[in-house]
Amino acid sequence: MSSCKLAIVIPCYNEEESLPVCLKAVWNQINSLIDNNKISDDSFIFLIDDGSTDKTWELMEKAHELSGGKVKAIKFTRNFGNQNAIFAGLKAMKHFNVDAAITIDADLQQDETKIEEFVEKYKEGYDIVAGVRENNDEYTFCKKITSELFYKLINWLGVKIKPNHSEFRLISSRALNMIDMYRENNLFLRGLFYELGLKTAYVNYEIKEREFGKSKFSISKLIKLASTGIVSYSTKPLRIIFFLGLIVAIISFLMWVVTIFVEVILNHDIRAIEPFEIWESFISGVQILSIGIIGEYIGQILIEVKDRPRFLIDKKLF
Ligand code: UDP
Ligand code: MG
Fold this sequence. Notes:
This protein is of the alpha/beta class. It is built from ten helices and eight strands. It folds into two domains: 220 residues, Spore Coat Polysaccharide Biosynthesis Protein SpsA, Chain A (Alpha-Beta Complex), CATH 3.90.550; 71 residues.
């Protein structure tokens, strides 16, 4: 018998349509890995109900029963967001003594047949194996552009995360112990796993269209995640506004010199010169932007200082 005990961790928010299909597909993968002696037969599925308002939890209860406990689950008191749901699932792994856990979305947009490859990489000695999507055909034009910009920006800011990878990844028990030490509330898992500095492998996969239900990520949730990602892992934006301020101050000084020259020496009314007005509205823009950037950092400090629980568990099935 193989010694690798594997858990598949799946965050679910109103996934009553996807969940049955997902469980079947993932279960098939687990069974064939067990049959081929790649993982041990006490491997299991761990579900997190992130405050669903549909029948998701009822389905989880049924799956738990029918599987004889091989499908385990927790239910949050309310929606805490995808990052917290995944984190809760990974934290729960300490009860089960697993060798590795794989997180995957409930909509099976990520290719679950790659799980075998993930396990092989783990056995080669990688602590993290991350799935990288090699196509984005199912993305809208807007999502393609914003996703690309986000990865460019965050890399430029010094957080060298691999573009186009999502929450489809394997995490070894060693890495699971390490993430337990992170106390932050504003979670950005892609940044966190990069931070660990562990040996990471990448596996390409083709992203599929979501077959059942709708995307649970609204634009506002995506913006919040992107902002958390940047603010949590880089203070460079603060330095950028410092230098922006410096440049603006220098240019303002030069314009002051020009003003004196034009008004006193040439005796012209400077207000009649348009560039000066454009410059003023530009400065207003820079100021509001800068306050906004500082505000993002202050907001995150506030949330961290409060140190509220990242999630609250209502029910457990394990
Ligand atoms: N999800 C969650 N909580 C949320 C939003 C999403 O647990 O508040 C789960 C969702 O059920 C799915 C995964 O996170 O399993 C990815 O969400 P989704 O497929 O909607 O995102 P997209 O693929 O559109 O980025
Ligand atoms: Mg999806």
